[in-house]
């Protein structure tokens, strides 16, 4: 016989309860209403169904309640669930087992579940209720804040925890000068220690957000109209703020429980037992409104989901699950900074023999700490700035690590890598949000023949919560497929079964001069994508002198370029660009320094001396680029190609010209090398260095091409790399003359161009090719393949054909058009409209409401329009993404972080909870 279940609250946890009941076949079949199971009614306060609060900040960049919704189409109808939106519970009568809602309706129940969540805590300070003061908890909060902030210039967030920093990122995205006030002595006091908070603070302050810790909010100062104008702090200081966001923690919503006589904790929260039952056996409580058997109120989604599973198990009749505590591990990205903590990272060092292992790099804002027990078991950890190891470390909490802790904290050294998924036992939990183990993932991969993360999400729900486990899931998937002997596709993408090296050979030997021609001859169908198009554009750019192809921004070539190459400048996180002129060998005249300073001053740009002995100008708008380059070109500068997969720079010391130890003219050689190889497009960027003696002041052995002067000439080293995976370069040849050195470098680079794969640095390339450096010596010095003369001749053609890319653009009116300002488009862009639309490339149009649309046309002439604002970064850049196809659907790839969006629906195919608005065409 059917029984009645009443659920109060339809947030993430309340909805998970419904899903868990459905998965256990515990709900009444609507086709047999008198059958066994639970007939469910849900009373919800909000007027939208359950949505993803974990990604609530996406609503600031255009995502709607529908985009964030957790409610699968047809779910309610399939299971006969009566969802009452906007009709919250007002009164519980436990004696009569009824609940009265705001509408006056009275609902009886056989079982009642409280999933009322929590409410934001607003400190009782003067002015807290003024106009301009907000909380940050719901979609309605986001809408109200976004609407009000449009006319504001400054804002402050009270609270430096998870939600507070999310809110600060939102204010920054909305264009406000932003402050964060945290009463504790450090940011995120519940997740990170002093070292981690210092690294996080440095990163956040570098983004222009002011941080005030160890001080509280005293009062909101208002103007004569009652609007917020400033926040006074407890130390007497005052912060100008037209918007004040309270994010100072939450409190359990337990009013209904208190009023009906259920037991409530001293500090709030409905008291429950291990089965999440309250003091009334017919009433359960789950999520943030419950005080669990360990005396805690959990504010994370993962424990809430576990409580929902526990109650679903009890209602389904089994009742074997219990909830006695939860893993509070978290991994998230706050304002661009990775932050993760797991286990018990705050256990006092020395207690019971506990010791910590810490890695800190203040230059990069990286802090990593592991706490180990006396038996080597991992007690907990904190990762700030670089949380890549989180997926490998977290499942080992409470267990001995399979390798020394340094293997997880330090950048990998040559020939080593951190322990992977194969080191995890099957009972290790890889997804805390849904309590999914590695063994369950492996079983699903085998039983369901899964080959991608999407399949794992669908079958196990792993990866559908906070997303922090996706890297681990991919590693488990790869390991399982490898064990089954299933090879991952070796081709570039769904459009080409060829590798980059194979594409290069096809283009070179068959003299293919365009992407369309290559796609027709060797493609697998479709329009291409953001993987294959830039690769083909890179190959065509390298072979341009041999194929007679012009500038990369002419004709079809322009549609293949990634954003940096499309605008010959580096895209920055806010949608602006950087300008880095070439300063060969680090040699610059006083007049050129003055010219750079004047350009920076006149355009209000940030200037920085880069690590490659150049001067970078940051904060440049797209339409400013041509004017800036006219002035820089007039001062003798040319493009430094800091944006391309090409030579960045050749660093040098002062060498024999000035140094008393110098044995060679390192400045002259560095300049010669940089001018010779400028503009050469390669599988990945490459760098050079020349040191005038063995003291190695130019750090040449950390470069792709490193040269060190000796008493008898030059030693040539290749395959060095700095950055995240440092590698010392290998000695290729010793005591070379300058001419012999240049010939050998010519051969090395052209062989790398021929055989390197997509985004493969020379260090990785050398380690991949069979024989490594010894193979290179055979090919490039002994000429074992008989291609040395051919490689040298190809380099000579490149040198002879070189032209400064920016000078070519300035002389080409058609190329200059793409740098123009965004034109108006009225209420909607015209479908046939824009003759300037290039197939496969987008254009921005400003709409009447001030927002921008990104308009695209495919090769068939079909036109699509979506919002131009990237929902992940808040920058108006979608129009600059590469158009292509995925599984036959027209898509665009955001130039920021490469998320792919369906142009027909606007949905992000990498994260369906996020989408772009679709703009109607006239």
Question: What do these coordinates show?
Answer:
The chain is globular, with a radius of gyration of 30 Å. With 922 residues, it is of the alpha/beta class. Strand 34 (705-710) and strand 35 (713-718) form a beta hairpin. The chain contains 29 helices and 43 strands. 28% of the residues lie in helices and 22% in strands.
Indicate the mean pLDDT: 89
- Number of DSSP E strands: 43
User: Which structural class matches the secondary elements?
Assistant: alpha/beta
| Shape, principal axes of CA atoms | globular
Order of strands in the sheet with the most strands?
3-2-1-7-19
Q: Which value, in Å, is the CA radius of gyration?
A: 30 Å
Helicity level = 25-40%
Unreliable segments (pLDDT under 50, ≥5 consecutive)?
none
Distance between the termini: 56 Å
Relative strand content = 15-25%
Count of helix runs: 29
Main beta sheet: 5 strands, parallel
Task: Produce the secondary structure layout.
Elements: E1 2-8, H1 12-23, E2 37-43, H2 65-68, H3 75-79, E3 82-84, E4 89-93, E5 98-101, E6 106-108, E7 111-114, E8 118-120, E9 133-135, H4 139-149, E10 154-158, H5 162-173, E11 177-182, H6 194-206, E12 210-213, E13 217-222, E14 228-233, E15 238-240, E16 243-246, E17 250-252, H7 255-259, E18 270-271, E19 283-285, E20 290-291, H8 301-315, E21 330-334, E22 337-343, E23 355-361, E24 366-372, E25 378-384, H9 390-393, H10 406-409, E26 429-431, E27 436-437, H11 438-447, H12 453-460, H13 470-483, H14 500-510, H15 515-522, H16 532-542, H17 544-547, H18 556-560, H19 563-566, E28 570-571, E29 577-579, H20 590-603, E30 606-609, E31 615-620, H21 625-634, E32 647-652, H22 655-658, H23 666-677, E33 686-691, E34 705-710, E35 713-718, E36 730-736, H24 738-755, H25 762-768, H26 772-780, H27 788-801, H28 805-810, H29 813-816, E37 824-826, E38 843-847, E39 852-857, E40 863-867, E41 882-886, E42 889-893, E43 900-902
Parallel strand pairs: 1-2, 1-7, 2-3, 7-19, 9-16, 10-11, 10-16, 11-12, 18-20, 32-33, 33-34, 37-38
Antiparallel strand pairs: 4-5, 5-6, 8-17, 13-14, 14-15, 21-22, 22-25, 23-24, 24-25, 26-27, 28-29, 29-31, 30-31, 34-35, 35-36, 38-39, 39-40, 41-42, 42-43
